[in-house]
Structures are given as C-alpha cells and as structure tokens.
Give the backbone structure.
Amino acid sequence: MEPIVRAVDVGFGNTKFITGGSRPSDFRCQSFPSRAYPSPRDPAKALGSEGRKTYAIPIGGLFYEVGPDVMLAADAFRATEIHGDYIETPQYLALARGALRMMRLETIDLLVVGLPVAQFAARKTQLEKLMTGRHDLGGGKSVTVHKALAMAQPHGALIDYATQHERVEAMEQELSLVIDPGSRTFDWLVARGMKLAHKQSFSVDRGVSNILQLIADDISQEIGQPYTNFEAIDVALRSGKGMTVFQRSYNPARLKPMVDIIAKDAVAAMMRRIGGAYNIQHVILVGGGAFLFRKAVKQAFSSHQILEVKEPMFANVRGYQIAGQNYLASLPGGWTRPKTTGGEGA
C-alpha cells in the first residue's frame, strides 16, 4: 500500500492544503480564510447554517466553525484570528483540522506543516507533536496522523520553485533567497541548495494585514465610524478597482505612497539581516501578498531578476508535499505504517 502524504499550511490570512495528486504537476490545492468562529453549540445544527460550506470542529468544549464559506458565519463579536502565539491557539488547531476534514481521509501516514521562519526552531517539535495522533474532525469524522513533519514556510516555496523549473541539482551549490509576504508576517529564507542558512533567515510583523489596516483606518476617518471589511479592501487591491462604501466610491490606490513605505520597511529589515546581496543567485518571490511587495523587492535587488512561481499562494504547501513524499521515499526499507499511534493531538 502506498503511504498517504498530505500537506497543510495554516497562514494568518489563508489555510492552504493538498487534497490529492501523486506528482507536482497534478497536486490538487485548496484554501479557505484563516478565520474560526467559536460557538457553545454545533453551528451545523443551527437554523440558517444550511447550505454553507463550513465545518464545526470540536475543541475544548466549544465548536469552531471554519471553511470556505466561513464569512457567512461572521459577526463582530466572535471574530477570531490566529495571532502571535500561533500554534498554541485553539483557532490554529481548528483551521488545521478543517483542512484535514476536507481531505476526506481516515489515515495519513505523513502530514507536513509549516511555521513562520522566526518561530521555526523554537516550535518545530511542539507543532509536530500537536499534529500527530487522532484528530476529532466533528460530525462523527476523525483522522489519524501517524507522523508529522514541520518545515519553515518559505522552505516549501524554495522546493516548489526548484521542482517546477527542474533545477534541484543545478541549485545545489547556489545561494537562494525566498521572500514570502504573508498576511501578518514578512518571511524570508536564505539557503544553499535546499539547506537553510538559519542565521540569515527570519520574519518581521510587516504583512498584508498592516496594509489593509492602514486603508481601513483611512476609510474609518472618511466615514466617521470604524470600518473593518478587510476582505473588500483586499479584493480592491488585487483587482485594481475602487470600492463602494455607504454608496460612495473609495479608491485605495490613493494610499499607494503609504503602502510603499510599509513594503520598504519590511524589505529593509530583511536586507539588514541577510547582508550583501551580491552572493545571491536566485531571488524568489512567493506568497499571497507578493503583488504588494514586488516593487520594493525589485528596488532592493535592482541587479537581479526577480523569480516567481505559478499560483504563488500555494507555493509553500506544494513544496511541503514534495518534501514529504521525498522523505518517505528516502527511508531505508521504505515506510511501514505503525500498528498503534499516540494520543489525540489536542
């Protein structure tokens, strides 16, 4: 029996995961917003929840509603997002289990997950322990994860880039920089070949959410009350179109100079950490926020070609899947599924 490998990347903005596919060219990727709405009762049984694609994940006596249609469950008082404590929050576990629920599996031999670069060394073992064992997915569903492997998030993107371009061996002695602007953090990773240079790799809290908050604050001043529809701002920025607020037009593009300052601050923090750029052969830009930071990256690396991948939001999770498959294939004698497993990862 072929071992089952799956990958999940719980980001501050979106949770990405692999539902199937044996080769990088046919990986099936999905995502949903990284939002979890707690309730004392199972919202799947509540009036009005029929028809929306969400799942109620039981954790610690509460039910956390997650999934593609989670915004239909939103209210201002129960809105909860994962924050700096990250993997220690019930929201993180709910999001990860929501992804597992959507995979429709009862057993996973190896689950590959990710961490921001700044948290990787300190929390790798903790996250692997959390994700190993039996997980209650709600609705009478569960999955058993026999082994978990944690990676630094941009490391997945590096593997994905090298695989897409068939350059794994060619890059073995070359220095690469992977830049991953996410929702909350701006991550970067320096590596020789596929091996990380930990002292030059790090994260700062300068992500897409800072830009969305900046624009939301400006809208709030204009309308005279708090504005919190970050999703509408995000759509406007990605489409390049204006917004309608209280039947009036608002164009986020007018704050572009301020957006550029946030992006430059993040890139400057990275440059201080990595030192000179002359030794770097590959500058790879990935992540859902790449479009907002592209200009600042190009200015910092004016002598380099900025490399990108297809569907950059899924670069990390595709790389996790490749790494997981390679890991099991490299084991002497192959992978043997244990007869027993540890306790529930909660």
About this structure: Residues 328 and 335 are 6 Å apart (CA to CA). The mean pLDDT is 89.
